[in-house]
Amino acid sequence: MKICKLFFALLVAGFVSSAFTSQRAEGAMINGAITMAGGAVYDTASLATATRVNTFSDVSVMSRAGDFASFVNVGDSVTMGSPWIFMPSTATPGLWSVGGFTYDLSGSTVILQNADFLVIQGTGTISGHGFDPTPGTWNFTSQSPSADGVFSFSASDGFAGVPEGGATAAALFGIGLISIELLRRKLLTA
To answer: Does a structural domain hold residue 63?
Structure first.
């Protein structure tokens, strides 16, 4: 009979703790990476003096992984927002979208710019398919104003939703108190 009561008490403790720990402060964040390539027409003939991409052309998905793999195929056409002004850094809502995902660029930094190379890194938020808006980086490289630019978006695997700390601590504290009480009762009856 005592074993049944002990089992029942542990079962109740498990249900109580799961009620606290099943609540999440955040939903599902996007995890994965996607790479795109296509053409870019700049505002000047030299990469060294370019400040914006006037138009993008023939941009398509080159690779995808993680959550992107469920909704995007290699070769899918990517819709790019233009013009994209990178100097000075300008927020660009809808910088790119593909397969139901949209990336809103909040800002960018020119890492390298000369006559032969242009490397820009941006930060922003991607959303789509019921995922929570997820922060991530966007990298743009181009080797000449007449060559295709290469674009990529990546969201770190560290952007997973986590349980809210207060509820988790309360649940663990409650389980600890119940365990102490059960142990106390067992020792008193022994």
So the answer is: yes
**pLDDT band (50, 70, 90) for residue 183:** low
Q: What residues are paired with 116 via a beta bridge? A: none
With respect to residue 116, please indicate whether it lies within any of the assigned structural domains. Answer: yes
> What is the distance between the alpha carbons of residues 94 and 101, in angstroms, rounded to a whole number?
10
Q: If you ran DSSP here, which 8-state letter would residue 24 be given? A: B
Strand partners, 39: 57, 148
Write down how long the chain is.
190
Question: Is the pLDDT score of 15 beyond 60?
Answer: no
DSSP 40-77: EEESSS-GGG--EEEEEEEEEEEEEEEGGGGT--TT-B
Secondary structure (3-state) at 85? strand
Into how many domains does the chain fold? 1
* Residue 89, in any domain of the structure: yes
Q: Give CA–CA dist 156/99, Å, rounded.
A: 19
Token pair, residue 17, equals 């703790």
Parallel, antiparallel or unpaired: strands 148-155 and 131-142: antiparallel
Residue 189 resides in a domain: no
DSSP state of 10: H
Mean pLDDT (whole number) for 50-70? 92
The distance from CA 7 to its chain's CA centroid, rounded to whole angstroms, is 42
Q: What is the 8-class DSSP label of residue 183?
A: H
Tell me the CB-side half-sphere exposure of residue 135, using CA atoms within 13 A: 6
Q: Are 112 and 142 in contact (CB under 8 A)?
A: no
